[in-house]
């Protein structure tokens, strides 16, 4: 099931073929037309909430009811109008899909989690401390940083080129969405806390990056966390076997798989939940494989990097996975 957030009211929808269905309204219709429900709208609000985090928290009941409602609407219902006559099904090309994250949910990002990415970055650099820095990042337990949830963008949104950089980069990633909250989660138990999977582009400023206290500054700016286009739920996906690609203006730049993560999603979940509760709706991003502009550009003798592979206004970046979908953004000037 592909669960999306759509429209002006940011309602939960289920993607079916080339449409998105208002699943709360569809379930109310299902109850009104197939049962003796006295208050179908109220019952639907409880069982299949219209807002994402409430829908996630409702767990298996919401998903089961959503599936029943979708099957009824597609196969049996006489029309696609809700209990009050409202439209329930919308063409994907006629409706806005928002990033599938809500409110205060956190975007927790693995750092230095693909060996090929880090190795390539080290091989293309010749700073005296590069090797030591790479070894420090890769060794030991997981490393992570946080993206500001207010910096989130959706597929189709323009990516505002930060005025402070001349080296804007892309990072194709997969993210797990937490469905069941918990603290001090064991690796073996983490799968029970995962609700679904989505795509993530960790847009990054590469000028004078420091891996010290101000590292997050290179990772956070308006629109710098593209998430979507939806969350894939209950599709039997192996979290450690998800292909991921990135194309810039149609050119394949990254092609990797979560099987190459240094620290698996269960290991990340265990690390991030130590003494800290993970809440339904939180995202944990995988880190990125080889092929970013920074790990593919050979440092010059004077310490500079050629800018050919770094992004420029007008570039179109697509992050995709055959198991999830595609997110697509055009880079625009900071003044646009």
Q: What distinguishing features does this structure have?
A:
single chain; 336 residues; alpha+beta; Fumarylacetoacetate hydrolase, domain 2; 27% strand
Q: Could you give a short description of this structure?
A:
Keywords: Hydrolase, Metal-binding. This protein is an alpha+beta fold and 336 residues long. It has helices at residues 23-34, 40-47, 52-57, 60-75, 115-123, 130-138, 265-272, 293-296, and strands spanning 2-6, 11-16, 19-22, 89-91, 97-98, 107-111, 143-147, 152-153, 159-160, 168-169, 172-178, 194-202, 204-205, 225-232, 243-248, 251-257, 283-285, 316-321, 325-332.
Structure write-up:
21% of the residues lie in helices and 27% in strands. The chain has 2 domains: 2-98, SH3 type barrels, CATH 2.30.30; 107-332, Fumarylacetoacetate hydrolase, domain 2, CATH 3.90.850.10. The model has no long low-confidence stretch (mean pLDDT 93). The protein has helices at residues 23-34, 40-47, 52-57, 60-75, 115-123, 130-138, 265-272, 293-296, and strands at 2-6, 11-16, 19-22, 89-91, 97-98, 107-111, 143-147, 152-153, 159-160, 168-169, 172-178, 194-202, 204-205, 225-232, 243-248, 251-257, 283-285, 316-321, 325-332. It is globular and about 75 Å long. The relative contact order is 0.17. The longest helix is centred in the first third of the chain and has 16 residues, at 60-75. By secondary structure, the protein is α+β, with helices and mostly antiparallel strands. The chain has 8 helices and 19 strands. α1 (23-34) packs across α2, α1 (23-34) packs across α4 and α5 packs antiparallel against α6 (130-138). The strands form 3 sheets. Strands 1, 2, 3, 4, 5, 6, 7, 8, 11, 12, 14 and 17 form a 12-stranded mixed sheet that branches. Strands 9-19-18-15-16 form a 5-stranded mixed sheet, with no helix packed on it. Belongs to the FAH family. Keywords: Hydrolase, Metal-binding. Pfam families: FAA_hydrolase. This is Fumarylacetoacetate hydrolase family protein. One of its GO terms (molecular function) is hydrolase activity.
């Amino acid at each position: 099931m592909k669960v999306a957030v759509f429209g002006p009211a940011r309602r939960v929808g289920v993607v079916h073929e080339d449409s998105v269905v208002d699943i709360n309204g569809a379930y109310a219709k299902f109850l009104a037309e197939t049962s003796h429900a006295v208050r179908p709208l109220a019952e639907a609000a409880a069982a299949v909430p219209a807002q994402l985090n409430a829908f996630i928290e409702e767990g298996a009941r919401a998903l089961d009811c959503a599936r029943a409602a979708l099957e009824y609407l597609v196969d049996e219902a006489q029309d696609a109008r809700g209990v009050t006559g409202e439209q329930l099904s919308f063409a994907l090309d006629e409706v806005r899909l928002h990033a599938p994250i809500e409110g205060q949910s956190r975007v927790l990002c693995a750092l230095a989690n693909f060996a090929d990415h880090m190795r390539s970055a080290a091989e293309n650099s010749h700073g005296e401390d590069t090797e030591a820095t790479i070894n420090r990042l890769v060794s030991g337990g997981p490393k992570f940083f946080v993206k500001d949830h207010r910096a989130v963008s959706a597929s189709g949104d323009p990516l505002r080129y930060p005025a402070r950089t001349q080296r804007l980069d892309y990072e194709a990633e997969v993210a797990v969405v937490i469905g069941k909250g918990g603290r001090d989660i064991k690796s073996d138990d983490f799968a029970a806390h995962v609700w679904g999977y989505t795509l993530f582009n960790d847009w990054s400023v590469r000028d004078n990056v420091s891996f010290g206290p101000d590292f997050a500054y290179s990772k956070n700016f308006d629109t710098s966390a593209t998430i979507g286009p939806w969350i894939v739920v209950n599709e039997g996906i192996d979290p450690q076997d998800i292909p991921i690609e990135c194309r810039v203006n149609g050119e394949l730049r990254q092609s990797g798989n979560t099987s190459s993560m240094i620290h698996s999603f269960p290991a990340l979940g265990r690390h991030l939940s130590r003494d800290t509760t993970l809440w339904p709706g939180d995202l944990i991003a995988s880190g990125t494989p080889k092929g970013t502009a920074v790990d593919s550009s050979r440092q010059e003798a004077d310490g500079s990097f050629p800018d050919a592979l770094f992004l420029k206004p007008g570039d179109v970046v697509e992050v995709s996975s055959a198991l999830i979908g595609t997110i697509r953004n055009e880079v625009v000037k900071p003044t646009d």
